[in-house]
Structures
1.
Amino acid sequence: MKITTFNSFKSRNYRLYFSGQSVSLIGTWMQRTAVYWLVFDQTHSNFMLGLVVFATQFPSFLFSPLGGVISDRYNRYRVTLATQTCSMIQAAILSIVVLFTHYSIWEIFLLSVVMGVVNAFDLPARQSLVNEVVDDERNLQNAIALNSSMGKLAWLIGPAISGIILEKLGAGTCFLINAFSYLAVITSLLLMRITPYVPQPHTKKIMKEFKEGFNYLKNTPSLGKIVIMLACVSLLVLPFNTLLPVYAKVIFHGTASTYGYLNSAIGLGALVGAILLASLKPGANLKKLLFINLVILSIALLIFSHITNFSIALCTASLAGFAMMSQTTICNTIIQTEASIEMRGRALSFFAMAFFGMQPLGGLLTGTISQYIGAPYTILAQSIAAIIIAALFFSFLFSKKKKGKHALDEENLQTQLSNN
């Protein structure tokens, strides 16, 4: 049997992209773990924990539409290079503030907001860039799945390392390591041989292009409903990981390492799921997989919510990670492979709004509710929400395609452009 899991590595540019991002994402997860633990350790507040998640991710909700337009208008390679450089500067400033000043918690919040703004422009450009660094379009779905595997591997390694460093050297060291990790991705970008960018004339205003992107998804239910479903899951289910520091410190009476292990368990499950997705044959029914994994996520959260045995908690956390990974990776794959090239960046910006925009709102909601009913019952409610969402989108996820891969999207695009 021919192995297709790593087909995308035939492309030199993609190998560079993958290796640079792998190092950088480990640093990113180290910083994320350290920020959340630092806030909870200093405030002992579930609400403040939800608030820092909100501060970190909500700017992506506000600015992702603009980021999508920028990705479609300008050189995605240059935009990605710029955003990665800005991310490195943010991490360096954060490390200096924590290591060398008597900082307040609000300075951490402010720098978290800055990172959220940068991510709003980074995600659409960086995700769309995959289409340009993969030589063979037939390997695009494989490349997207491998990207997810890369992110999940970083999710496995980063928090575990961060937990140990938090105990031994403190949060500032985690931030400093993240700053240096960006050198890997910047170097990989500079070493790529990218086809020279040919500027295209843009006679339309940015807001008009944003409106076109919105109407494109509205008139393309196969993509629009995917974004809506992801938004619901991101708001009501995925923010369960907001409460992991509470479980680590209060329920399991652990330390920063305990928190790191919980995060890494989720990353391990997500990595396994991403590798399985990368191994899928072209033409696999991704929508049915979305439904199945949403049910699995509900079951995992149901068990995790009231568990008191740490070993069993790690196993259920891994199962939850396996299931939650599909919600983003499959949605991303469907959008990238089915959206027309003229709208891909804007479609991905709405994907970012649904994922990165709804999660901070959900994190704030999760933190607030858990202040009143406790972390276990909050996660139990998220388990129930997952089942309800699966039921609401059942008919859509199991519906049969009536047209070819791009036919309906192209028709809707032409209709949309003609109406404008």
2.
Amino acid sequence: MHAWPASEVPALPGQGRDLRIHDTATGGLVTLDPGPVARIYVCGITPYDATHMGHAATYNAFDLVQRVWLDTKRQVHYVQNVTDVDDPLLERAERDGVDWTALAEKETALFREDMTALRMLPPRHYIGAVEAIPGIVPLVERLRDAGAAYELEGDIYFSVESDPHFGGVSHLDAAAMRLLSAERGGDPDRPGKKNPLDPMLWMAAREGEPSWDGGSLGRGRPGWHIECVAIALDHLGMGFDVQGGGSDLAFPHHEMGASHAQALTGEFPMAKAYVHAGMVGLDGEKMSKSKGNLVFVSQLRREGVDPAAIRLTLLAHHYRSDWEWTDQVLQDALARLDRWRAAVSRPDGPSAEALVEEIREALANDLDSPAALDAVDRWAALQQESGGTDIGAPGVVSRAVDALLGVAL
């Protein structure tokens, strides 16, 4: 599967700072020191309805992570998956009377278009669950043969008790885990499971549903969590720098994935930091496909909204915060974009050197994009009020905003 084209990231004078970011597993800030190649895995979409503003906010957060690392002169090895076979996709296809593969391909193509318009840097490897199945099967077999998995009526389940570190990502108690498991794709009430929280690794073929040759596992399809584990281990290996996604993935998805990988390899941890973006709401509820309360990037684009303004709307909120989408936040972003473009349209202005460092410091401090926007606002206000004599300063500001915030002025 191919990703989307990369926008050019301008080179800036000087060098950025190492990133301090909130790690869900430890509950505090950690300073990441990835070495010359930073490794990041971000969980992708299930392509039955893309791309709503909650998706955009999540991918914006991890785009900033990449930009901070690139500014430190590191390379970035970014991997993202597409869950192109799963119950919600199959259910939507049946509801709409369309082929599930056609639906997945259509929505994935639209997602690529949205990411391109928003200037999100693409992953080096963009892998679908279906194409990953040949690598998933042997991992499930290894877990089963090692006693970390068991069969139940043809399905294969992972035993959470096989990983002594289980629970170390989300730090939830058993009752909270059970509740979220039921809400987020698990089956804690299925009779015969060793532990209600045990997640499915391999689903035996069901009549009328797609299935693949699973070798000794029989025909079937992979569970949700093992999909990402197989892709991450194949392309990044254990101990990569950041596992990312929305806050609703901390449990069960990232918790289970970490345990799968740790049971497979005997190594800990799967990722050095588990980083989670907040939820975007609409009309008082979390924006989600199941609720149908979605604002789509593609719809805004069709209405003529500048993608740079959409991106500024996202950047105006700290990535870990939950926030509400309103017409007003978009109007504020459009006004800000106009001010910034007017400010950089002149050949000279106030010195930009301090501003570049302010943006760098704000982003290095747990991706504090609102502080970075405030810094650019102050520079633009000075430009408007009194101008300046630094020839080329507006060009430096324009390149910095592009390189570090992904906004083209």
3.
Amino acid sequence: MKFLLFFVFLTIAQALVHVPLIRRKSLRKTLQEHGGLREGLSPQHDLYSKYVPEDEVAMGEPLLNYMDNEYFGQISIGSPPQEFFVVFDTGSANLWVPSASCSSTACSNHNKFNPHLSSTFQSTHETVSISYGTGSMMGLLVYDTVQVGSIVTRKQGLILSETESIFLYYSHFDGILGLGYPSLSVSGTMPVFDNMWSEGLIPQDIFSVYLSRGNGSMVVFGGIDDSLYTGGLHWVPVTHERFWQISIDSISLGDQVFACEDGCQAIIDTGTSVIAGHTEAVRGIQEAIGAKADIYGLYHVTCSDISSLPDVIITINGMKYPVPPTAYISQFSGSCTSGFQVTSGPWILGDIFIREYFVAFDRSRNRVGFAEAVRS
């Protein structure tokens, strides 16, 4: 079971108090108003061409950045194609989008797949459910054509959700495309990335992720774009081929170690917006940065104190990776919220960490590479 912590946790805490449950403006309309739909995802767009390697052997998929908390790109499913916005999630392994027959409120404001409009659709009678740390869905396993950028996989297994928890109503994406190992797939179907490789659609069994605070975020399938990072990549072996799980040496603030003094395990998870860890260690970090809990369990700091807070140092395979307070404190509507949360499993290094460090995911050698991300 994947522990998924989207920023929507904060949004829900605010929305349940301040906003009645009404149909909000569609994602498509919102992105059109901000110039982020189609233009931002077109191969002819400057953001796309800037980050695609010149030899064009690898394929760059642009990601839209919603408030530095959700990153999602456009894919299409079926023949003719039906378009969806999905999170490219290294912490899960299934692709799912809402079904046209989904009756949940969470589906009401998202794009939904209509199987009757696709000539390549193949149904099954298998029901699949997925539970995340902050939501769940249940649906039907089906097969159809899936296109990511210029890459088209045939007979791709995916799930069409029939029911979704209300949490997903507040997401600004339609579904999730998992990039974890096949052993993580709840339905036993081959993940999209594995099909890309097995069908010879990408030149290398590797993908890489660049998350920006502004425009220009990208997933590169089939290679690494060295224009997205500075210095060299430092490689770390995967310790458990299910999640993209690695060993951490320690987590410290200044000279004081707050977690993993004797080493621990961590998951590199693009589908989680925060850094999550064990209760006692996270509590110690919150106290050290002066964060206080509100009635919803969210921790806040005084905004004027951010510049004086220490870096959080995550040491991996002997290399120190500083995470500054400007990265782990989120500022929104005059409130400054800590980006550390609690999980009972391995530590999770989510988008807070990945915005600072470009990450390459190498399936051919079962390793993860880190380098300092280019600042946008």
4.
Amino acid sequence: MRLIQLFKKELSHEARSWVRDELVSEEQANSILARYGTSLTDDTETNSFGYYLLMSLGALFIGLALILIVSHNWDEIPRAVRTSSLLLLTLVTNAIGIKRFLSERTRAGIIWLFFGGISYGASIMLIAQIYHLGEHFPDGIFWWAMGILPLVIFTQSRLLAALSLGLASIWLGVESGEDFFPALYPLFVSVTLWLILFQARSRLLFIACVVGTMVWMNLGLAWMMGNGHHFDPVAEQLPLSLAIGLFINGVAWRLMRSDNSDWREYGLVTHIWLLRAAIVTLLGLSFEGVWQGYTPGSDWLSVVSVISILVAGVLAIVLCRESGRYASWPVMMVTGYLTFSFMLVTWFGHLEIIAAIATNLMLLLMGILLIRRGIDQSETHYFYTGIVVLLLTAFLRYFDLIGDYIGGALLFLVAAGILMVAAKYWKRRVSLISLKRGENSE
């Protein structure tokens, strides 16, 4: 799976210029683009999507301006007039949207429904204010998001799904902030996933669903511990987040092997962002002081942390076992490293230095694997990511010497040796590829 999959819109634009310059025929260009799940017409669809997006933002600003105008003279308007006006505005905008959608003016209908969704939310909030209904204000946001959800299913619109999921995510935050658990949040994630997996494609919504699910699961753990939304993100939540990340990475590799080009794209973008998050997390854990937040003990949280990482790692290995060594081997190494490190610091005392050293070794191994993967698959993204990992690790250890000066010097020497060997291996491979191309041309 190449990173060019993420830039297929740009590839479609380039292919149109190839056809225009008569470098390839239109049939050949479409055959090339079909490998990446796109076609020459996708460039035109991008232009129309830009118009659609600008119109949607225009509808949003009109709705916000209308709310401000009404709010300016709000107290002077009779209560009955205010209520009836809000209800009428919501009914009319949604009725126009549904009528245009059913008459096959799909995008115009969705824009009207988007405007109607904003009117619906404003009506909930303002009518509640007029009649002093309810003291738990997150309920208004919840019913706003819930009211849009049927329209998401009916229209299969990504714009309405983004509005519904965005409101649900706001409700997730404010509901937990009021010391209540947002138990129904997965309903909104499930509907959004159904839409983008089976009806329409959206990398942004897919990543939003993944992030939202991870946040919701962390909140669930906090509530199980009796802390509500007050939790220590490192000492209490990090092990669960790492376990979830391992499992999602296995799912991402499975998606990358799918026959569906959109699913492959979802898997690739998820894998790339998880890789970046893993690098940042390991760089943080490479400091001894971070591990000191885990106090030794036999409480149930430490046991659950280790078990969750181990189970998630095994499931991830099962999911990506058919994807090659660059999928299964890193998962096995990270699972073993995390299990060992968290067992060490939560079950024994004064061994944080060993966990920090293990983290630095893990970073070196990750850098080596990324460099090797970039060379073997001729993908510079992974090659340079591996080099950056090694350089950042060496840079951090220069200011935070683990194992005193001798240990830091040894780490620098190991990193230097890896970089030099990688450079020679890369040069040799490029020479072999050039030689093969020369033989083929003859």
